[in-house]
Amino acid sequence: MVAEEPSIETMQTVRVLLADDHALLRDGIRPFLTDLAEQVDIVEAVDFDGALALATETTPDLVLLDLKMPGMAGVETVSAFRKACPNVPVVIITGQVVRDDVLRAMELGASGYLPKSMSGTSFVHALRLILSGQPYFSAHLLGPGGGETDASNHAPGGRFADLTNREVQVLSLLVRGESNKEIGLHLGLTEITVKSHMRSIFKKIGAANRTQAVAMAIQHGISG
Questions:
Q1: DSSP secondary structure of 93-109
Q2: Span 193-209, mean pLDDT?
Q3: CA distance linking residue 114 with residue 39, whole number of Å
Q4: Is residue 211 pLDDT above 90, yes or no?
Q5: Distance between CA 63 and CA 77 in Å, rounded?
Q6: Is the pLDDT of residue 3 over 70?
Q7: At residue 140, does pLDDT exceed 90?
Q8: β-strands 112-115, 39-45 pairing
Q9: Which residues of 169-184 are buried (b: 16+ CB within 10 A; e: fewer)?
Q10: Does the N-terminal or the C-terminal CB of the chain have fewer CB atoms within 10 Å?
């Protein structure tokens, strides 16, 4: 079954590890983080060693990670943070979205891959989804040619060939980062029906969870 996602509304305090070596960027992000909960504690790091130490010592609820910090080894570094705090969502913030890096980040267990070019409103929305247990990736940058694509125009083969048109629509909205409630509102379905579609999708494509389903969908040309 698709488990119920916890609501961020129940979180009174959120501790965020913000790891980026550019002070100007940290200064710009910090005000948006305060919108995540009634109280937001922010700890900051400027290199890999400092970030990993804080991830272990401070028990954050969310890790925001710049891949270009000193000491980082690219997207592969995600695995070190997943080991240090396995139950904490790790989100990559980057100035350049590289399709292969996004897919690799998903494989390594990252919960999000956010371009620094996104708006503050979209940034907060993405982090709220991630804190509620849902992955968020910039899927519209991963379609053919780097632009948005219409999932209904794709005819993915293999396991995806068994998906109904409605299931493809649901999966496309999942890739976009929408919650079950938002998918239901978008398609005129109840949350119960959306969850039923999710279970069917996961079974047909062999996905264990939402993050894996998103990664598999993008690899097969389905985007949000």
A1: EESS--HHHHHHHHHHT
A2: 90
A3: 23
A4: no
A5: 13
A6: no
A7: no
A8: unpaired
A9: bbbbbbbbbbbbebbb
A10: N
The pTM (predicted TM-score) of the whole model is: 0.65
With respect to CATH, is domain 149-219 assigned 1.10.10.10?
yes
Of the candidates 24, 27, 72, which has an alpha carbon nearest to the alpha carbon of residue 47? 72
Least confident of 17-21, 78-82, 104-108: 104-108
Q: Return mean pLDDT, the chain.
A: 82
State whether the Cα torsion 92-52-124-199 is positive or negative. Answer: positive
C-alpha dihedral, 13 to 19 to 23 to 26, nearest 10°: -40
Distance between CA atoms of residues 2 and 210, nearest Å = 9
* pLDDT higher than threshold 70 for residue 154: no
Compute the average pLDDT of residues 12-26: 92
Architecture of domain 8-137: 3-Layer(aba) Sandwich (3.40)
Of the candidates 164, 169, 137, 139, the residue with the CA atom closest to the CA atom of residue 151: 169
DSSP-derived secondary structure letter, 75: B
**What's the confidence (pLDDT) of residue 83?**
92
Tokens of 25: 């960027």
Q: Which of 203, 180, 178, 182 is nearest to 193 (CA)?
A: 180
| End-to-end Cα spacing for the chain | 24
CA–CA separation, 48 and 57 (whole Å): 14
Domain extents in the chain: 8-137, 149-219
Structure tokens at 159: 């396991």
Q: What is the pLDDT of residue 188?
A: 92
Question: What residue ranges in 78-222 does DSSP mark as E strands?
Answer: 90-94, 112-115, 136-137
